[in-house]
Amino acid sequence: MAPRPSKTADKNIVDRTRARRNADVARTVKETRDRLSQQPGNPAFDREMLKLHAGALTASAAVLPLLAFAVAVGGLFIGMGAAVALWAAVTALSYVGLFIYARHVRHTDAADIDIGAIHLRFLIAHAATGLCWAWFATLGCEPCQIEQFPIMKAVILLIAVAATAILAHALRGSLLATFALPVLAYVGFAANLWQPVEAAMAGLLAASLPFFSFVSGHLHRSAVMLLSFRTEKDGLIAELETAKSISDEARRRAEEANLAKSRFLASMSHELRTPLNAILGFSEVMAEEVLGPLENQTYRDYARSIHDSGNHLLTLINEILDISRIEAGRYKLKEEPVDIAHTVEECCNLVELKARNKDLRLIREFEPDLPQLYADERAVRQIALNLLSNAIKFAPTGSEIRVRAGWTTGGGQYVSVKDNGPGIPAEEIPVVLSAFGQGSIAIKSAEQGTGLGLPIVQGLLDIHGGRFELRSKLREGTEAIAIFPTTRVMPSLPGDGARRKTSSAA
Known about the structure:
- It is a single chain.
- This protein has 506 residues and is α+β, with helices and mostly antiparallel strands.
- The protein has 3 domains: 26-238, no CATH class; 269-328; 335-492 and 499-505, Heat Shock Protein 90 (2-Layer Sandwich).
- Helix content is 66%, strand content 9%.
- It is built from 17 helices and 7 strands.
- Helix 11 (297-328) packs parallel to helix 16.
- The longest helix has 72 residues, at 196-267.
- The protein is rod-shaped and about 140 Å long.
- The two termini are 75 Å apart.
- GO terms for molecular function: histidine phosphotransfer kinase activity; phosphorelay sensor kinase activity.
């Protein structure tokens, strides 16, 4: 029976069964959007193109009326009379009406645009301006006696055609609706086709209409492509925002789950340690035959195995609880003045026997007269013991471990433990510093561990405001450095040096 999909938000956000479906849906949406963006007649793009056309007209509202007035001024100057002034006024009024309607369309919401009706009204308005240009093509100039007047009209019409092709490219058919009639009027009434120059100008004007129609169509396709790119960009941004919100929500829930786990383990300290203490105590009593002899040697061996296993399990539980408290933010520091050199020296004495069993030498190098740190002594001791235990575990037999404590260049203090073991590859250092992480070479060449020693050191240093550095090279060894910040170093007081010497002598 197939599992039913969960109705909760948690399951919907991190449901792994939806991953392939979501990818397929995203791919289908992208392909459909690409197909629609290139298909003519897409309503969304048609509305955008109408608004783009309206915007272009309102932005350049004065261009063609100024051309008409310039022609009127020139016509009055050469003696064309009031006819050209009347034509300029009517032409300006027709363009004003076109621009007013374009402004209305520009401020209309895209969802309220009736594509067919508005497109038709624009074409009618352009055709009305075309009637004015057809009127201009039929204007004569008998009083001015200028032989090149038809050529001048052809040049003015060419300028108007070029300007309209650029300004009205977003509306298909606008150029033909405007200048098909003026070109026919010029060829049929204004130009003397028996005159070579006028015939050439008529042919040029007639040829300019399809040419500028082609240019306008190319600009129209470019505008459609830009709109499709913008739509695709908006879609990708929306998808990225959705994916980011889903990822953030999933990460937040994962962090909450991890925090809940850490809090649970941190609160289980008493419940886990109490039965373990009983196991350790009773197995030690049996192994040492405190209450009487055990006649069977196998029972005594079993009791020692139980005690050793219990100790190993208690160490593991303590490390898990420590890292859980650190992750949950429940590790409370008991801050007090700590002599870092003295504390590290004591830790070296504690592991001395274990080092001798592996024929290892501990070389101590402590800078003299180090001031005290304001830190948690138990945490500093645990940092030193973890670093020393790690070095002893991985150092080869007969080698040496160099333990140093001193000043950092920034005024803080550090503890360094360096061995000449197998080393750690650079790409495995992040794994080693993660909880339960171990390097491949270390696993093969040393006894197994929990992989929590270094993460605990790193967590304790973070709580103190310090940092942890791990420097390693293959077959050359590893150096672990615990650095405490300058703010933790206490100012030296008179007599501190003498008290430390007395303590060392004792």
